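assembly run, all chains below
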Amino acid sequence: MNKKGRFLRALLPVAFLSLLSLCVFLPLALLLTGSITHSRELNRLLAPMLGTASGFVGWSFLPKYPTLRHYVDLLLDRPQFFVMLWNSVAIVGGSLLGQLLLSVPAAWWFARNKRRFGKRLFVVYIVLMLMPFQVTMVSNYLMLNTLGLLDSLWSIWLPAAFSPFPVFILYRFLHDIPDSVIEASEIDGANQWQVFTNMAIPMGSAGIASAMVLTFIEYWNLIEQPLTFLKTKALWPLSLYLPEIGMELAGVAMAAAIVTLLPSLLVFLYGQSYLEQGIVATGLK
Amino acid sequence: MRQLRSKPQNCPIGRKLHTDGVSLWFLLPNLLGLLGFILVPFGDVLRRSFFSAMGGRFAGFENYAGVLQNEAFQLAAANTGRFLLCCIPLLLLLSLLIALLLYSLPGVSGMFKTTFLLPMAVPVASVVFVWRVLFADAGLLNAVLHALGAKPVPWMSTGASFWVLVGSYIWKNLGYTVLLWMAGLSGIPQNLSESARVDGASEGQVFLYITAPLLLPTAFTILVLSMINAFKVFREAYLVAGSYPHESMYQLQHLFNNWFRNLDMDKLAAASVLVALVLLALILLFRRFLEKGGEEERE
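ok done. output:
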């Protein structure tokens, strides 16, 4: 096929994909442009939705009076935003830490274990990993209640630390390490711990990064657990707080949405290859 | 480097080599937590499902009957079922199409892949505002429909809200699913399809007889993962419409939250067990399919 034919043949799929991509970008574009649109314009555009005008909502992708007022308002005049932001950071940070400390050794155990017990236990891990919150919710609640940890961030950190998901991901990355390499370093005098820290962790670093990226995105987004276990609203993360900002403060709500989006986006962009590896590892059951 | 003079187990330094696994201490913290926070309490949940709410009276299967006859539970279960039946095939087919296209366009695939994966990194809480503006009765989508001469749809207050959930779910999970398909596609040896083409098979035939059967394990895996993710659609529903949304949006978690607030522990326990059993059955069923599919491949 000549070059022109090949180009034309690729045109249709690319056009289709571009159209879909536009659909994907649309919500983000709306958020971004809306967050810099002046309140007066926003109120006018959104009035039909608030019931104060007839017709339909409009949107200005090129706002007449662009302003950063909403961001200033959000970041300088609203201390609650920072409290919630800190809660989100604390939740994600604590969960990541707990998972790293507990899941990496556990995954290493599974990777090195050869007996049937290990394989059977791993199946249990997989099954548990696939159970939605509805199944584990009451179990978690009972235990947390007994320990008196409800209504504190521990109610999120502890179940997160014991989550089977990172163990599963890390196992996929760690079990390829050949025995001979391990044996060689053990003959050289390394004990189990040294093998773990000097070989497993460096060699599994891609897996660790993948698990961390996936966990970050998941826990930045957490809804069910804080909703169920955290009674005090002062402990709520951004994911629950954002929707509470009313429509009258649409500009601020959108600015907040963008600010909440940024850390997740950054992690995504920097860790995209790890994210992809992690997703693929999930798929290769 | 020290020379190995004998079998590893008889190494003169007397050190035991760990060829059959590392110390249990590596696993223990994680395992104990899993046992303590999920498995052991689940035994208690099981026990509670057979007793009345305050733990006093033995109730046999009353709670289970109560849950199954509960209208809200039936609604939520029906919604979840309907969601799975409508949304998952749509998602799978669309993402497969995209994956196939991207696979045949290696130059631009990276860029598109990033684009489609982007929604995964967008927090639900952020995008919910847009859904509200788009799908309000006087919202943007209706504005477009109106401009095109069609009748506006009351998205949030009727059964159409179901499609709002479907749309937002597909938006969020498209990239993830495309990635999984592409991983599956890259596992198919090129020479099979090449030789088929040389033998005169058309693209459609190549897809139908070679690509598709080999993609079956991937398809099942994606199916299972999507099913599990479908429970998370509660997030969108809750954030867009609150604790008591339109009935088409009503999910299991809404019900569980309400039971939880009223401390209806008996119903909660029974329902948890039911959901666990159903999912367990489905997962084991899929594993059997996966294993059978793997066997056929090896033949």
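Residues 1-6 of chain B have pLDDT under 50 and may be disordered.

Residues 17 and 296 of chain B are 39 Å apart (CA to CA).

not gonna interpret more than that til we talk
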